């Protein structure tokens, strides 16, 4: 074990970050390096001591502790949503969900999983995603034929869970299982699998971090997990993205491509990770490995989607059509601009079938500009950036410039932020701010007529959330240009997630011009 530095012996309750003397294979103890963790350990005896027997417990390892913490956070998240699956008996003597008096917003328990059970026609036995259609706004000028609106794997995930809920209902009717409203059973089955996906994410982050497995605790106990793990279906793609990056870190580019391709079939954002890989592989001369990953990713996505593209094309295109025609999201920066400036150029009120062409163009162009900036950063930095740093910057840029930032999208950033900039107080502060946006959002949806909040309050918290993400991005950029301040590299490591990039020499570097004095 590394001895405790002499300065920390004088004041053991307030250790200062010190990882510079760690051996490359030695585990980082957050109770020594993070003041927040050191303070939290006081009731348990204080920071890790000089003679602590690290790694010798027969059961409890950092990974298992992190998984336990994740189970507790996910349980808290389920209780947060449980108010929306309560039932009551109506005047006709039938049981139905108790959504009276704006319960989803007052109790802040809203989850897309519940209304989608009927909205996507999953409550029927004769449906199949992308084959079943229905008419929306029938008899009006906004009448439209609709299909399942999610990518293929997410749509199939919902359909399978609905079938399991129907089977549960049948067995319950025979007296073998406890009965409940089918939608409540469906939500609980879905929540079980979503929770399992986030546990996989925690596992992958702990394995990827190597010397810093305790950083996975931030992924486990993130306030965003407690609020949004069951808001939608994003933990599935997060799990595949995290395991894909883990496979890359273990120098398995084909397996990484397979996992990223499956993740992209559930939610498109894992495809964004190929961009940082490309520029880093270009700098290190590892384009062969990147090509393998990219081709396997594309091939996997195509294999999953091809049957639906060929035989259920109209239903399969629904996801892409809706994303093209969709206006600005309430959480987007464009809605903030439109509200506070009255700039009608970003008006989100669209006529039926109208595509917000200018909004699509502006958001797409801004994202490409940000990607170009990240590429320039990767090729001009004095030391090749870590993969996690660039992945965080690209996904953050996508969310900040995109016309849609659904609240659960913030889960995408959690594993990447932890791996990119593992500063506990900073990350927990951002996560708490981001999670708290949920409260004014719910009361904004409740409406001022029902004693809800005006839009200004909600959009104000959105601005604070965006500024917090921008601050994290700025700090990541600072550490890229000043690698000596990077906590991950402080102990002599290069890039734990890098795989073939780890300690590889540079081949292509764009040097910034030096001004003559």
Order of helices and strands: HHHHEEHHEEHHHHHHHHHHHHHHHHH
Helical stretch count?
A: 23
Determine the structural class based on helices, strands and strand pairing: mainly alpha
Largest sheet: 2 strands, antiparallel
Beta-strand share of residues? under 5%
Give the secondary structure arrangement, pairings included.
Layout (H helix, E strand, L loop, with lengths): L5 H5 L19 H4 L1 H6 L21 H21 L4 E3 L5 E3 L5 H4 L6 H7 L14 E3 L7 E3 L5 H22 L8 H28 L6 H6 L1 H6 L5 H16 L3 H14 L7 H11 L2 H25 L1 H4 L1 H8 L7 H9 L15 H24 L6 H15 L11 H8 L3 H13 L1 H9 L8 H27 L36
Please provide a brief summary of the model.
The protein is mainly α and 517 residues long. Helices cover 56% and strands 2% of the residues. It has a two-stranded antiparallel ribbon with strand order 1-2. A two-stranded antiparallel ribbon has the order 3-4.
How would you explain this protein's 3D organization?
The structure is a single chain. The protein has 517 residues and is mostly helical. The protein has a domain at 1-56. Helices cover 56% and strands 2% of the residues. The protein has helices at residues 6-10, 30-33, 35-40, 62-82, 103-106, 113-119, 152-173, 182-209, 216-221, 223-228, 234-249, 253-266, 274-284, 287-311, 313-316, 318-325, 333-341, 357-380, 387-401, 413-420, 424-436, 438-446, 455-481; strands spanning 87-89, 95-97, 134-136, 144-146. A two-stranded antiparallel sheet has the order 1-2. Strands 3-4 form a two-stranded antiparallel sheet. Mean pLDDT is 87; it is low at 1-25, 346-353 and 513-517.
């Amino acid at each position: 074990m590394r001895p405790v530095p002499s300065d920390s012996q004088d004041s053991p309750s307030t250790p200062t970050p010190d990882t510079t003397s760690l051996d490359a294979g030695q585990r980082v103890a957050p109770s020594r390096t993070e003041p927040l963790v050191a303070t939290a350990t006081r009731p348990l005896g204080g920071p890790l001591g000089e003679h602590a027997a690290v790694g010798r417990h027969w059961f409890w390892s950092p990974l298992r502790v992190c998984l336990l913490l994740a189970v507790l956070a996910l349980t808290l998240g389920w209780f947060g949503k449980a108010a929306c699956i309560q039932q009551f008996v109506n005047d006709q003597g039938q049981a139905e969900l108790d959504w009276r008096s704006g319960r989803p917003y007052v109790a802040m328990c809203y989850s897309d999983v519940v209304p989608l059970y009927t909205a996507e026609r999953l409550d029927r036995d004769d449906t199949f995603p992308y084959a079943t259609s229905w008419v929306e706004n029938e008899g009006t000028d906004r009448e439209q034929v609709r299909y399942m609106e999610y990518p293929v794997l997410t749509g199939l995930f919902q359909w399978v869970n609905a079938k399991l809920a129907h089977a549960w209902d049948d067995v319950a009717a025979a007296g073998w299982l406890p009965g409940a409203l089918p939608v409540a059973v469906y939500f609980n089955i879905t929540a079980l699998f979503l929770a399992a996906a986030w546990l996989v994410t925690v596992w992958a982050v702990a394995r990827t971090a190597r010397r810093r497995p305790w950083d996975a605790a931030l992924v486990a106990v993130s306030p965003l997990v407690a609020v949004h793990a069951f808001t939608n279906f994003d933990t599935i793609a997060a799990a595949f993205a995290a395991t894909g990056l883990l496979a890359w870190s273990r120098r398995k580019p084909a397996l990484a491509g397979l996992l990223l391709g499956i993740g992209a079939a559930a939610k498109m954002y894992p495809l964004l990770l190929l961009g940082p890989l490309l520029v880093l592989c270009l700098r290190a001369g590892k384009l062969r490995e990147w090509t393998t990953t990219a081709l396997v990713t594309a091939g996997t996505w195509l294999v999953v989607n091809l049957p639906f593209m060929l035989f259920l094309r109209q239903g399969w295109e629904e996801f892409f059509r809706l994303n093209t025609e969709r206006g600005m999201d309430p959480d987007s920066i464009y809605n903030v601009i439109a509200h506070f400036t009255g700039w009608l150029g970003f008006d989100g009120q669209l006529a039926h079938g109208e595509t917000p062409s200018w909004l699509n163009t502006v958001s797409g162009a801004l994202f490409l500009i940000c990607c170009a900036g990240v590429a320039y950063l990767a090729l001009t930095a004095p030391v090749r950036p870590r993969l996690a740093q660039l992945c965080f910057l690209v996904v953050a840029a996508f969310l900040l410039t995109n016309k849609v930032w659904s609240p659960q999208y913030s889960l995408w950033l959690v594993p990447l932020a932890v791996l990119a900039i593992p500063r506990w107080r900073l990350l927990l502060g951002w996560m708490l701010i981001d999670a708290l946006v949920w409260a004014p959002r719910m009361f904004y949806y409740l409406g001022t007529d029902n004693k809800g909040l005006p839009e200004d309050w909600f959009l104000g918290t959105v601005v604070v959330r965006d500024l917090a993400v921008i601050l994290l991005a700025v700090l990541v950029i600072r550490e890229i240009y000043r690698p000596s301040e990077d906590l991950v590299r402080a102990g002599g490591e290069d890039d734990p997630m890098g795989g073939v990039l780890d300690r590889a020499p540079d081949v292509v570097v764009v040097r910034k011009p030096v001004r003559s004095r």
